[in-house]
Design brief:
Order of helices and strands: HHHHHHHHHHHHHHHHH
Radius of gyration: 21 Å
CATH class of the largest domain: Mainly Alpha
CATH superfamily of the largest domain: MFS general substrate transporter like domains
Strand content: under 5%
Structural class: mainly alpha
Number of domains: 2
Distance between the termini: 12 Å
Number of helices: 17
Number of strands: 0
Largest sheet: none
Shape: globular
Helix content: over 70%
CATH architecture of the largest domain: Up-down Bundle
Length: 436
Amino acid sequence: MHEAESPDTLPPPLAPAAEEHPYAVFRNRDFRLYLVARFIASLGQQMLSYAVGWELYARTHSTLALGMVGLAQMVPMFLCTLPAGHVADNFNRKRVVLAATAILAVASLGLMFISALQAPVLWVYWCLVAVGAARTFFWPAGAAYLPSLVPRRQFARAVTFNSGAYQLSCILGPAAGGGLVVLSGRFLEHPAATVYALNTLALLVSFTLILLVRREHRVERRQPFTIQNVAEGFKFVFANKIILGIITLDMFAVFLGGATALLPAYAKDILRTGPVGLGILTSAMSIGAVVCMLILAHRPPLEKAGHAMLWAVAIFGLATIAFGVSKWLWFSFLMLAVCGGVDNISVIVRQTLVQILTPDEKRGRVSSVNSLFIGTSNQLGEAESGTVAYLFGPVMGHANATGSIISVVSGGIGTVLVVLAVAWIWPEIRRYGKLA
């Protein structure tokens, strides 16, 4: 079921004794550099996202202007996903990651000048389009590049630390961005420019660290850019039952079970906690994911990865239901933290299996399909949650709180039903063994 390792795709294994240590993967210089680079870049991007939202609303006082932020980044994702996968498989992945990082730095620098000069808001969206396009090329190249940095037996743990680093940036980034805006506001008229400048610096540091990574991706035979070659990722996903099953499971779980879009309504109308409570709820899932990462890092690779993923998504649905009916802030926080923890298990299993079950020459295209489905399900899931809350709330003569509760609880129930359906349709997932 697993492809054979070769010297061209994976580095030589470490000594068996080193493998026993939970942090043995950090003895790998290339992985250390890559992980730190990803964390710094992600931290800066989280700060940038906060600053963009804050500045746009301060300048326009329009919720539509905020909604256009997601649209500006989704359009290039739809247009560039398939070409990005082809590029990741047919060009040096390290150079693709470097090029995408450089474009992100230029876009951030552009946002700094737009903010400092108070240029028309339209220019902000053009920079965000560039950010969306660069990220779309970055994701499949970065995901497909990671397996070449570590031996296969360490790959699951590498994915665990990579996911944990991202979640940690989700906790620290918005807080750092908000703190910088407040501090800079005491001295500067346009404080968001400071955040954009710092993000540019972070991306330059990330670029330098990745440049120092020695491992290179070599393309044995470059394929022409044709519809057939570009669509190879879709063909492989639909032909591989395990990959198709786990992507479907994660996609529908995110689409149905995501309650994050309604957190402001819960904080204000249900839990009645205000901005402080909203901040606590917003950080809950990332905190749960980081705690889960620390636990998994000290345990052997999952022996029954398929069962673990199915149970993780089922618990995600049940915890979502419990959050939906909760009236107490700290119980709601706990349930969201549980959601974040088990979601991290699902992410680790999915990302690991997508890479180790895919031949190296197709990893970029398969990773692009994976990122397309999961990325769009995040955006569509937020729209689904808000729409259901509106239809079962104000449209039916009920309060926003009632509609929000119905939306979240029904989404959690739907997630559990999806788990049962996936386990029945793709029994191969139930039978999948050790994640290594």
